[in-house]
């Protein structure tokens, strides 16, 4: 535990110096253990595990563009994202780790107690065991505060889910070198720092009971629309969704160009698929190679917040992504990479994007750049923002949008599969730093 955050930052610097890390770009056709299928061009690991990169055709979408093709990561196995919680002198603390991921812009970020794919924790790589894993997969070792199967980024993953679990323990456990206990107030301060608290930690923290959240008062209040009305709206859009997804060979994905070095869009938009060689002496294996998805620009993920009868509400949308497991999920007001829309007509820009980008400073509740999942995405960063609009902002909104309180979203979040990962990340920011 740290008496102040200066001690934490000193500890983090020491952990960086204590281990050697190196991430080197590598051609896709020379990645150790990886190969392209000679017929389809799909990228696979020689073990048949971990993940693969396929092509996907998407039609019937109600998005700004109704049809497209793209590469997508196929990782059907469920991983474990788990945080241990323990009270010290009556104050809840979370056990987090300083973890290197090859896609992190700054090498080390704060990860959950356990962050592991099934291939990792079943040791397909023949490396070291995942610390503390048994506390999450063996029942009865602690008191569960939350446990839900949740989707990952639907624009880049095909039907990917991970278990988000929080376990409260009373027993003392050894704290390994790269791990530390942090209070919830300390985590709230660290969430204001760019690229420090990783995506997996943020999504798990969204499941904490609101009574534990430093800004938990934002989760309380009488909603303008009861919860059954919100669920009715979501179910309607799920049943009306006509999105059709079809696998296509990666080598023949329309608009994409494969070279020996990388896979990229013909207009240099969206993202690239690149290769990296990795060395990290404190990981379960000390070196490996892999493909990664590298976005071409920074994204914007934002809530429009309005008080209705004095109660804060956030504006959400019903949104289907290319790889969303259950079709439509509840998404933020704005979720996009603005550069991807620069070539489209003004009317096809994401709705409310200008509202969140042009907000005056006094209206911004929080504004922080966070990294996305560094195990699969290379230097992927999004600006997370919440903007409170004045009372003359229209309460009636287009059919694909709906007002909800943060408390309602937190309530449905515990059941899994209804909120996308971007909303869950914003909820964490609302609960800790808004």
Automatic annotation (TrEMBL):
Leader peptide range in chain numbering: none
Domain dTDP-4-dehydro-6-deoxy-alpha-D-glucopyranose 2,3-dehydratase residues, every copy: 6-208, 229-430
Pfam families xref list: Hexose_dehydrat
Residues where dTDP-4-dehydro-6-deoxy-alpha-D-glucose 1 binds: 34, 117-121, 200, 373-376
GO molecular function annotations of the record: lyase activity
Top-level taxon in the UniProt lineage: Bacteria
Positions contributing to dTDP-4-dehydro-6-deoxy-alpha-D-glucose 2 binding: 155, 256, 319, 335-337, 340-341
Designated name of the protein: NDP-hexose 2,3-dehydratase
């Amino acid at each position: 535990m740290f008496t102040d955050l200066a001690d934490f930052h000193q500890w983090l610097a020491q952990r960086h110096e204590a281990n050697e890390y190196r991430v080197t770009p590598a051609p896709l056709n020379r990645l150790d253990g990886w190969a392209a299928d000679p017929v389809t061009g799909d990228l696979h690991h020689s073990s048949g595990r971990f993940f693969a990169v396929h092509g996907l055709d998407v039609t019937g979408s109600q998005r700004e563009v109704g049809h497209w093709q793209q590469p997508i990561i196929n990782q059907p196995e469920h991983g474990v994202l788990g945080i241990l919680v323990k009270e010290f002198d009556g104050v809840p603390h979370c056990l987090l780790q300083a973890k290197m991921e090859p896609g992190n812009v700054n090498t080390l970020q704060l990860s959950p107690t356990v962050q592991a794919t099934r291939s990792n924790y079943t040791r397909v790589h023949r490396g070291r065991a995942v610390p503390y894993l048994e506390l999450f997969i063996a029942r009865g070792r602690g008191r569960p505060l939350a446990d839900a199967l949740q989707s990952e980024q639907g624009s880049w993953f095909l039907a990917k889910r991970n278990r988000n679990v929080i376990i409260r323990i009373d027993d003392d456990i050894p704290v390994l070198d790269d791990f530390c206990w942090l209070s919830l107030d300390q985590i709230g301060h660290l969430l204001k720092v760019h690229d420090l608290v990783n995506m997996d930690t943020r999504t798990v923290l969204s499941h904490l009971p609101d009574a534990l959240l430093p800004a938990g008062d934002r989760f309380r209040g009488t909603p303008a629309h009861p919860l059954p009305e919100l669920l009715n709206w979501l179910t309607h859009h799920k049943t009306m969704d006509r999105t059709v997804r079809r696998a296509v060979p990666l080598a023949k994905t329309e608009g994409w160009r494969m070279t020996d070095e990388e896979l990229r869009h013909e207009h240099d938009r969206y993202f690239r698929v690149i290769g990296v060689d990795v060395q990290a002496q404190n990981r379960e294996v000390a070196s490996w190679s892999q493909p990664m998805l590298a976005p071409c620009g920074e994204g914007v993920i934002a809530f429009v917040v309005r008080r209705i009868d004095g109660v804060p509400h956030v504006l959400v949308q019903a949104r289907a992504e290319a790889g969303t497991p259950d079709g439509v999920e509840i998404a933020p007001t704005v979720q996009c990479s603005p550069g991807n829309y620069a070539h489209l007509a003004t009317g096809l820009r994401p709705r409310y994007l200008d509202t969140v980008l042009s907000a005056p400073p006094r209206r911004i509740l929080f504004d922080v750049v966070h990294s996305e999942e560094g195990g699969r995405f290379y230097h992927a960063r999004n600006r997370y923002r919440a903007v409170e609009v004045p009372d003359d902002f229209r309460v009636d909104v287009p059919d694909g949008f709906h007002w909800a309180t943060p408390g309602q979203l937190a309530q449905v979040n515990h059941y899994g599969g209804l909120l996308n990962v971007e909303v869950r990340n914003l909820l964490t920011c609302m609960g800790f730093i808004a």
